[in-house]
Amino acid sequence: MKEGTFYVTTPIYYVNASPHIGHAYTTITADVISRFKRMWGYKVLFSTGTDEHGQKILESAKAQNRDPKEHVDMYSQVFKDTWKKLHISYDEFIRTTEPRHEKVVQYIINKLYEQGDIYKGVYEGWYCVPCETFYQADELVNGNCPNCGRPVIWNKEDDYFFRMSKYQDKLLEHIEKNPDFVQPQTRRQELLNRVKEGMRDLCISRKGLTWGIPIPFAEEYSIYVWVDALINYLTVAGYPDDREKFETFWPAVHLVGKDILWFHAGIWPCILLALGIDVPRKVFAHGFWTVKKEKMSKSKGNIIDPVQMANSLVDKGFDWDIAIDAVRYFLMREVPLGLDGEYSDESFIHRVNSDLANDLGNLFFRSVGIINRYGDGIIPNTGNAENELLNIKDSIIKGLDEYMTNFEYTKVLSDIWDFIGAVNKYLDQKSPWSLARDGKREEFDSIMFNVFESIRNIAILIYPFMPKVSEYLLSSLGVELESSLKREALEGWGKLKQDWKIPEVKPLFPRIEV
Ligand code: ME8
Fold first, then answer.
1. Looking at ligand 1, which residue's alpha carbon is closest to its atom 29?
2. What order do you get walking across the sheet with 294-295 strand by strand?
3. How many CB atoms lie within 10 A of CB 442?
4. Is the minimum distance from the CB of 295 to ligand 1 under 6 angstroms?
5. Which residue has the CA at smallest separation from atom 10 of ligand 1?
6. Which of 306, 356, 351 is nearest to 462 (CA)?
7. Is pLDDT above 90 for 257?
8. What is the pLDDT of residues 85-115, one digit of tens each?
């Protein structure tokens, strides 16, 4: 990895249904860090995609009466379309059925086989198709899958195995030496315990399964879908042919849900160690969104669709882009990444009303109202900074890269909202409207300059979370976007355009009556 670069990934999602807020959560989280890092001057590679092979996908295609290829093409497009709607700025969208990926998977399997890390044995145990996971009898809970609770199937066949146990000690050492390798700490502890219990060799083949990548030296087998899927992170990074890209970006930061931590922080690093490649820079496992305390899932029928959430705001008078940003804001603000979050329509509406309409929206619209009424709509640029506001801004910027890199988004947002609160309070206390009425023009100008300069800073700070709201606010302030969405634009105080007349603005966040 070269200095100043940042590679972040989401899991590649199964193409058996449309995305819900669980998928959107991981993807928006990755989008926020990518937008932030680009703003901070990093060269970013942000990758997402779809996991298209395996028995689960084959069965879902059959259940929906589609040819598997047609099925994966269709759902993969649904994911792409949804990410476009949610303003996701990915650099790469990888599909595991792409030839470029199949080539890398086969290359890796050959390499591991040739170096003696893959051997033939007999697999005897259980398999959960919805989770695409092998289990031994002692791992089952009441005879069912310990992860999803559904029935498992018995499997006994000749199979190929990866010598995972050989890399256990190296992995353990890495986790122990690198306290931030897995975050949050509770998940790191969980992983440590599991690695210490001992790692069995991993079955990496499925006999006779045709919807998968064939094992190059035994074509009657396909490669276990999780091994196929994990390798996507290397394919995107240019491994093995594009050395330049690979050396620029690898290792990646993997964002995952807590259900798939073991694959990313247990199995995957062992494969990488076997290949002589650096293990991931970080694996961050977030919590689950629940509805009435149950994990959201298609089988339970309690799915929340992010696009429908946005539509519910459009019905209340929101512009589409602003509604999408409100969904993004809610998901990033409501729960600290790592904990579970309970979704309800009430909590969504409450956030939108209180944080967006009452705090941010109110600050902007009352400020514009004051300047229109008492200052001909022209933002004064007096240049004298109000230290109280400047210091708040500086203290946010100080730790920002670190907080963002540790995915402490709720803390960052709460700091930005404290800033918004401070500017609203400043307006109340200074009551510039009275100063204008009393003819104290200089004082009025100075206060309004500081208010709008604060709004400019706030608009830049919220950009990673709400890009369209940010762009709307900045362009209303006459600020050029390209030069504004940069770290330098947050330095100092007083980068507003001289004598800018604010155009007519529309209310961004209509208050929702409940
Ligand atoms: O596991 N709350 O794909 P997947 C929060 N293809 N996040 C949730 C969630 C919920 N209720 N439900 C799902 C796979 N997620 C594999 C990944 S990667 C090499 C292969 C999110 O479609 C969360 O990030 O089942 C979880 O890890 C991911 O969706 C799983 O998506």
1. 23
2. 294-295, 289-291, 341-343
3. 11
4. yes
5. 22
6. 356
7. yes
8. 999 999 999 999 999 999 999 999 999 999 9
